[in-house]
Task: inverse folding
C-alpha cells in the first residue's frame, strides 16, 4: 500500500475536524442553542471519543481487521450526519452529531496503527504523513470561515457531507499491514498499561487537552465577540495549523536530537503562555496571531512526542488499543471536561477571558506532571 493512500485519509479526516472543531459552536448558536447548551452538546460530542475508539480498537485487534473498521467508520459517520440536512430540530441535531462522532472517531486509531506499521523502524517519518492532516485542517478551516460568513452557519452541513463522501472514497484504498518494527521486546518489557510512567504521560496529556476546552469549542465565538469577522477567525485558526504543519515537518529532527520528555515540558510551558496571552490580549490582532503560532507547541509537538511514547509501550497485537486509549483518555475525556467547564463559564461570552485563564491553570498542571515524568 503506497504511503499517499494513508496521507489522503489523514487529509480528509482532519479536514472534517477543521470544519467541526472551530465552527460547531457557531453552527449550534445558529440553531438556537445557548452557551451552556453548546457546552453540553460539545461534551456529549467529545464523550464519544472516550467510548468509541476503545470499542472499535478492541474489535479491530481481536479480528485483525483494522482497514475494515476504517471503511465502516467512514460509511456510518456519513449516514449519521445526513439527517442534519433535512431537520433543524434540537433533538435531531444532538442525536445526529453524537452518532456521527461515535463512528467517525473509530477511524483515527486504526489509521495511526496502520501508518506506524507501514513505517516500521522509520516511525520518525510519521509526522510528515500526519502533516497532510494538518493541510486538510487549515484549508478547510480557512475556507469554511469565509463560506460560513457568506452563506450562514447552515452551510456547515453540505460542506461536512462533501468531506465525508471524500473520506469514504479514500478509505477504499486502506489495507491491513503486519507490524515490522523492531521494538516488540521493548514494548513487552514496558508492560503496556502496567507501566507507571505511561500513566504520568497520559495524565499530563489529559490536563493539556482539558486546557484546550475554550479553544476547541469557543475560540471562534471569542473572536467574534471581540469584533473579528468569521473570515478573520478562520485565518487565525488556519495560522495555528500552519505552525502545526511546520512543526510536524521538522519534528523528526527534534525527536532525534532532544530527549522526548524535555520536549513535552517545552510544549506544556508554551501552552501556559498561549492561553494567558489569548486571555490578556483579545483586542490585539498581531498578538493573537503570535499566540496562534504557539499551536505548534501546544498541539503538534506534544502529540508528536506522545504518540511515539505510546506506540513503543505496546506490542503490535495491542497497538490499536494503545492508540485508542491514548486518544480517548487524553483527547476524548479531556474534551469532555474542557467543554463542560467552558460552557459553564462562558455566559454568552462574558466569561471568555476567565475560561482561558482556567485553561492556563490546567496547562500548568500538565507541566507539573510532566516534570514528575522527567524525574521518574
Result:
Amino acid at each position: 500500500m503506497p504511503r499517499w493512500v494513508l496521507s489522503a485519509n489523514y487529509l480528509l479526516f482532519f479536514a472534517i475536524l477543521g470544519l467541526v472543531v472551530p465552527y460547531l459552536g457557531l453552527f449550534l448558536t445558529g440553531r438556537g442553542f445557548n452557551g451552556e447548551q453548546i457546552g453540553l452538546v460539545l461534551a456529549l460530542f467529545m464523550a464519544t471519543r472516550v467510548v468509541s475508539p476503545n470499542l472499535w480498537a478492541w474489535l479491530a485487534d481481536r479480528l485483525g481487521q483494522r482497514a475494515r473498521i476504517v471503511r465502516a467508520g467512514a460509511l456510518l459517520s456519513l449516514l449519521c450526519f445526513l439527517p442534519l440536512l433535512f431537520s433543524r430540530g434540537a433533538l435531531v441535531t444532538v442525536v445526529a452529531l453524537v452518532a456521527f462522532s461515535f463512528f467517525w472517531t473509530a477511524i483515527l486509531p486504526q489509521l495511526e496503527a496502520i501508518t506506524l506499521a507501514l513505517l516500521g523502524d522509520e516511525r520518525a517519518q510519521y509526522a510528515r504523513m500526519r502533516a497532510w492532516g494538518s493541510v486538510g485542517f487549515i484549508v478547510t478551516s480557512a475556507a469554511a470561515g469565509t463560506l460560513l460568513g457568506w452563506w450562514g452557519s447552515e452551510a456547515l452541513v453540505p460542506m461536512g457531507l462533501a468531506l465525508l463522501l471524500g473520506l469514504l472514497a479514500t478509505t477504499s484504498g486502506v489495507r491491513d499491514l503486519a507490524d515490522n518494527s523492531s521494538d516488540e521486546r521493548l514494548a513487552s518489557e514496558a508492560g503496556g498499561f502496567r507501566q507507571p510512567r505511561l500513566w504520568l504521560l497520559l495524565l499530563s496529556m489529559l490536563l493539556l487537552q482539558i486546557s484546550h476546552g475554550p479553544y476547541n469549542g469557543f475560540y471562534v465565538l471569542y473572536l467574534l465577540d471581540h469584533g473579528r469577522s468569521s473570515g478573520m477567525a478562520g485565518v487565525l485558526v488556519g495560522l495555528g495549523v500552519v505552525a502545526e504543519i511546520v512543526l510536524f515537518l521538522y519534528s523528526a529532527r527534534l525527536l532525534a536530537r532532544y530527549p522526548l520528555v524535555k520536549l513535552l515540558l517545552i510544549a506544556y510551558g508554551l501552552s501556559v503562555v498561549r492561553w494567558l496571552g489569548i486571555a490578556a490580549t483579545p483586542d490585539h490582532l498581531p498578538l493573537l496571531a503570535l499566540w496562534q503560532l504557539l499551536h505548534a507547541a501546544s498541539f503538534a509537538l506534544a502529540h508528536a512526542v506522545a504518540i511515539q511514547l505510546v506506540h513503543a509501550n505496546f506490542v503490535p497485537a495491542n497497538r490499536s488499543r494503545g492508540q485508542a486509549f491514548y486518544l480517548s483518555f487524553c483527547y476524548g475525556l479531556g474534551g469532555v471536561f474542557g467543554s463542560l467547564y467552558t460552557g459553564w463559564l462562558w455566559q454568552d461570552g462574558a466569561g471568555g477571558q476567565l475560561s482561558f485563564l482556567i485553561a492556563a491553570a490546567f496547562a500548568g498542571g500538565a507541566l507539573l506532571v510532566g516534570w514528575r515524568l522527567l524525574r521518574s
Remarks:
- The radius of gyration is 19 Å.
- The chain has one domain: 3-175+189-375.
